[in-house]
């Protein structure tokens, strides 16, 4: 293996197993599904910016905080850069200012928790 191989060859990234069952939020119509489902159980929306270092760190810690008992908890993943219109509608629908990263928990069609940045890691989703 030459010097250039050592510099430019990338090692395969380790796949990290997560208990979060991410549901991609890619359509405006899903907001109605979220509100309807929230009549039976709490639903979370994680708004993530793929270009933000804080957002990247928080989402990794968020995933690590999920244990096997939480695999049933529905968490929608919203890519803010690719779905800005949906992000705007989430803010309007649940009357919350945009933040990134941001975790929203909806129950009975209403926002019951809103946390952003590192405060996301303080939300105890097991209590829902």
Q: What is this structure, in a nutshell?
A:
The chain is of the alpha/beta class and 128 residues long. It contains four helices and five strands, in the order αβαβαβαββ.
What does this structure look like?
Helices cover 30% and strands 21% of the residues. The protein is α/β, with parallel strands linked by helices and 128 residues long. The chain has one domain (18-123): Glutaredoxin. Strands 1-3-2-4-5 form a 5-stranded mixed β-sheet, sandwiched between helices. Helix 3 (53-65) links the parallel strand 2 and strand 3 (75-79). The mean pLDDT is 88.
Q: How do the SSEs run, as a string of H and E? A: HEHEHEHEE
Report how far apart the termini are: 53 Å
> Helix proportion of residues, in percent?
25-40%
Q: Uncertain regions: pLDDT < 50 for 5+ in a row? A: none
Strand content: 15-25%
The chain-level mean pLDDT equals: 88
Number of helices: 4
**Main pleated sheet:** 5 strands, mixed
CATH-derived topology: Glutaredoxin
Give the CA-based shape. Answer: globular
CATH first level: Alpha Beta
Number of strands: 5
Total discrete domains: 1
CATH architecture: 3-Layer(aba) Sandwich
Please give the structural blueprint.
Elements (H helix, E strand, L loop, with lengths): L2 H6 L13 E3 L5 H8 L5 E6 L4 H13 L9 E5 L4 H11 L7 E6 L2 E7 L12
Parallel strand pairs: 1-3, 2-3
Antiparallel strand pairs: 2-4, 4-5
